[in-house]
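fwd from M.: "can u put these together and see what the complex looks like"

so here's what she sent:
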Amino acid sequence: DAGITQSPRHKVTETGTPVTLRCHQTENHRYMYWYRQDPGHGLRLIHYSYGVKDTDKGEVSDGYSVSRSKTEDFLLTLESATSSQTSVYFCAISDYRQGGADTQYFGPGTRLTVL
Amino acid sequence: AQSVTQPDIHITVSEGASLELRCNYSYGATPYLFWYVQSPGQGLQLLLKYFSGDTLVQGIKGFEAEFKRSQSSFNLRKPSVHWSDAAEYFCAVGSSGYALNFGKGTSLLVTP
């Protein structure tokens, strides 16, 4: 258990509304990631963070923004949700240490439905 | 660019039979390789990983995988499958501090 929680676990919203998903970790890891999982696509990276206020885009970042104001929380925001953003969202942390190999551990996921 | 291919979308095996799930990768440097398992409605659980050294790695739940550089493969194996192994399996490749590249997954069905 890597001490990762995601909230909410399930959400149904309407097209055009803003949505924020939260990822919380308890182990002070520097690297955090947001992925989305869709049938036939595996997991694809949306955004990641390599420290407080340090973030970068991933493969499928359009329509998403992120923020990390403290080490333990990484927020994913859909400014104006669309039906194509219906998906399962996973947060991950990396146990990366300088000069070492790292392993990613995943949260339980958030199932988002945009009507 | 990194990429991972899992050639089999679905695999069906009988309980007690052996299992091999295939994973091929494309990566410019020495890759870090992972297998994750996902049960329905659950998150991803790490089965095993390869960073360096012995090319045969042991994981949890009786799984093992073998890294073959010459074939760019990292196949997952289990000698005797249990009904509880039915799940989706993902192979992933990455390097330190960077996001993982995932295959599209192999769905395993176990029949009595």
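replying to her w this: Chain B touches chain A at residues 32, 34, 36, 42-46, 49, 51-52, 90, 92, 94, 96-97, 99-100, 102-105 (CB under 8 Å).
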